[in-house]
Amino acid sequence: MIILSQFPWWIFLIVVLLAFICELTDSSLGMGYGTTLTPVLLLMGFDAMQIVPAVLLSEFLTGIVSAIFHSLFKNMTLGRNKVAAGNPVINSENNITNLTTGGGQSLTTISTPKKQTLVEKVNELTLDTKVIIVLTFFGILGTLASVIISTIFGYNTIFKFGVKVYIGIMVFAMGVLILSLRKKQMRFSFKKIICLGTIAGAKKGISGGGYGPLTVSGQILSGREGKNAIASTSLSEGIICFVGALAFLITSIITSSISGGPISFGNWELAPFIVGGAIFSAPLAALITKKVKNRWLIIIVGIVTVVLGLFSLTKTVLAFTGIW
Hints:
Elements: H1 9-29, H2 33-43, H3 48-72, E1 90-91, E2 96-100, E3 106-110, H4 118-123, H5 127-152, H6 157-180, H7 190-207, H8 211-221, H9 226-259, H10 271-279, H11 282-291, H12 294-321
Antiparallel strand pairs: 1-2, 2-3
């Protein structure tokens, strides 16, 4: 393990700046943080075990902060839908409903509150909230499934290479589709969102990156607006990264306990620098998303998705051949 004290102090200023720039791109477009930052830090000489937990923790914290500002800037709407206008006026404290008869006479009735079913409560949620729940739930399932599959295959190099190539081609193809179909109105479907969350989560579990390009581009192709897709991805990815960071922490504790040595909580030394740079970009990123028109946002997302797909494919092939 490389000791951080071996690096000169100005290297950490560069790390903060890189985290700021990468997160600014990620929170404003919903992609590019881990995919870009991780290989750059590796090239700078940091160890993967120093980078991964720090990136996971920073993505969790910035996901929460980014979601707050995306919500404030109306890039997404969380919670329950507002009560439609024209419904009877109900006094929530006394369950009193005021009605008016045809002759103008006012009647007051007291009704017994009806307990809502789970389905009714879910139906009252905004579309953004529903999509985030679905992406998060199936993303976590996909992540766990990928870990199990990787364990069965013994982290086989050929298997992981094949998966990364497949995902890289998929990301590239989705970017091309976004650009090709940008003027066509896509029909929204939760089935697409479920498949999307599972595949993106599996990609996250196997390689640690690629969640954003898949979920943002996939949501747009599923009929979602660009701003809503970006904001929803930021929050869902943040929650999934929390699960990843927690798993890393638990794994470190269990591994160190089995080895008989002192209890280890993992290496988090790089985290303050990455978190510090990333978290301050979230408000600016949410504002950029709000200001850019949706049609331009879709074009930018399409181009960035194509570039990240090509970058992922190139990095995977070069790493497999030993060049990277």
